[in-house]
Structures are given as C-alpha cells and as structure tokens.
Amino acid sequence: DIESVLPEGVSVVQYADDICLFVTSRVWENCIELLSDGVTALTNHLTTLGLSISESKSVVCPFTRNRRPPLPMTFEMGDAKFQLVEKVKFLGLHMTKSMSWNNHINETQKKCEHHVNIMRAFSNANWGADPSTSILYYKATIRS
C-alpha cells in the first residue's frame, strides 16, 4: 500500500513498522529531491492512517563509493529533520555508507563472543551442563 503513494523513482523496503525509503541516482541533488518527495508522500499517507514517522529513530545514510559526498549534517524533508549517519542498522543488518560487510561481521562477532563466553562458564567436559542443554543454548542465542 505504501508503494502506491510514493513518487516514481522512490523505492521502499518494509517489515512490520520498519520502513526504508531509497533512491538511486548519479546526481546528489536528484537523490535529495526524490527522497524529500518520498518522505512527504509517506508522511501524508501515514497521517491519514493516524500514524507518524519518529524523527529520533529516522536517519539518512548515503551509500556511495565517493569518500566525501557534498551533504549537510541534517536533512530537512517536509516538516521532518533527519540526522546524516555513516552506518545504520536495518532489520538486523549493519550497513555502512561504503556497503562494506566489515561492520556487520564485527558486530555479529561481538554478540556471539559474549554468548560463547557464557557457554564456557557453564559447560565443561568434566562438569557443568550436559551437551544437549549447551546445544539448546547455542541454537537459541548464537544461531538466532
């Protein structure tokens, strides 16, 4: 339903109450204009449904190979102001402006290390939790 209210050139990825608008262009001004039109259309549509965009949870992350794109620190789109960030987490994926997997891998590794250390504390070959309990913990925390 959201796709039908967005202007041509603006795409959306959504899951439950998480929404990501994105545009592609070789010209920054076109991206900003399209994204601004998309945010305005989305805001108007959500208002008719009795919903709103949370400015504190919303950000703009330009994905580019260019090291320093000519962008301001905040974006004003419609009545909303959005912070410019270099990395963002969306639906469990940690994405950086250069579209590198390094940040996602590092964050996932940190999360797993914590749970592996907990497993080490309650599991040992001679004492502690039995292997089936350790496997359940592993599946519930590390593989999830």
Automatic annotation (TrEMBL):
Residue ranges constituting the Reverse transcriptase domain according to the UniProt record: 1-95
Top-rank lineage group of the source organism: Eukaryota
Protein name per UniProt: Reverse transcriptase domain-containing protein
Origin species: Lygus hesperus (Western plant bug)
